[in-house]
Amino acid sequence: PQRIRINGIAPGAIRTAINRAATEGDAEQQLLKLIPYGRVGDVEDVANAVVWLASDASDYVVGSTLFIDGGMSLYPEFRGNG
Q1: Around 56, how many Cα atoms within 13 Å sit in the side-chain half-sphere?
Q2: Which domain holds residue 37?
């Protein structure tokens, strides 16, 4: 009745300082095999989605989890097996 909206964010591989070793060089190339969209995400990718969820533009979105993962949640069905 108070119109409180609860949603979740499920980020995939997002390039940050804490996971630099996994998102650069040879490790990045291996990681990209798991990302159908073909790139590692940026912090801005998550931030833009959070801004949208916090805005009135997403007023009717309730109880959802938004996957921001470049399609990683589709793996392995998407690439090679799809």
Answers
A1: 0
A2: 8-74
Residue 80's alpha-carbon distances to 9, 27, 30, 37, 68, in angstroms, are 27, 20, 15, 14, 21
Cβ neighbours for 48, distance < 8 A, ≥ 6 positions apart: none
Structural domain includes residue 64: yes
For the chain, the C-alpha Rg in angstroms (whole number) is 15
CA distance 38 to 3: 38
Residue 1 within a domain: no
C-alpha 48/C-alpha 36 separation (Å) is 20
Q: Give residue 82's pLDDT.
A: 46
Question: Looking at the domain assignment, is residue 79 inside a domain?
Answer: no
Mean pLDDT of 28-43: 94
Number of domains observed in the structure of the chain: 1
For 67, the enclosing helix (H) or strand (E) is: strand 65-68
For residues 52-68, average pLDDT: 97
